[in-house]
Design brief:
mainly alpha
C-alpha cells in the first residue's frame, strides 16, 4: 500500500511541478493561456502574480517529494495543503480545480490514513 500511496503523492507532485512551469514560464505562451483560459492581454497584465503562484506550487511539489522519503506527518501536511488550496481554487476560480488539484491529493490522503 505504501508504494501506491507514494505513487499518488508523486503524481500530485508532478502536477504541481507542471503548474509551476505553466505559471512561471508559459503563462503568456499559447499553452499557458489555453490551460488557464486567459487572453493575451490578461496574461501580460498578470504574469508577475502568476509567477508568484507558480513558485508556491513549486514549494508544494518539493514538500510532496520530501514526503515520499519522510514520515507520514510530512505527507499528511503537504497533501492537506494541496487539498485546501484546491478547495479554495474551486470555490473562488473554477470547479475544475477541485478535480485537477484537490481530488488526487484527497485520494492520496484517504489511502494514507486508512493504511
Amino acid at each position: 500500500m505504501n508504494i501506491i500511496i507514494n505513487i499518488i503523492i508523486g503524481i500530485v507532485a508532478l502536477l504541481h511541478g507542471y503548474f509551476l512551469i505553466l505559471e512561471m514560464f508559459l503563462w503568456e505562451k499559447p499553452a499557458g493561456r489555453k490551460s488557464f483560459r486567459t487572453t493575451a492581454e490578461f496574461a501580460s497584465q498578470s504574469k508577475t502574480l502568476a509567477a508568484n503562484q507558480g513558485l508556491y506550487n513549486g514549494f508544494l511539489a518539493a514538500g510532496l517529494v520530501w514526503g515520499i522519503f519522510a514520515d507520514d506527518a510530512v505527507k499528511i501536511f503537504f497533501l492537506s495543503c494541496v487539498i485546501i488550496a484546491g478547495l479554495f481554487g474551486a470555490y473562488t476560480v473554477s470547479k475544475r480545480i477541485f478535480y485537477i488539484q484537490a481530488l488526487p491529493a484527497l485520494i492520496g490522503l484517504v489511502l494514507l490514513l486508512v493504511a
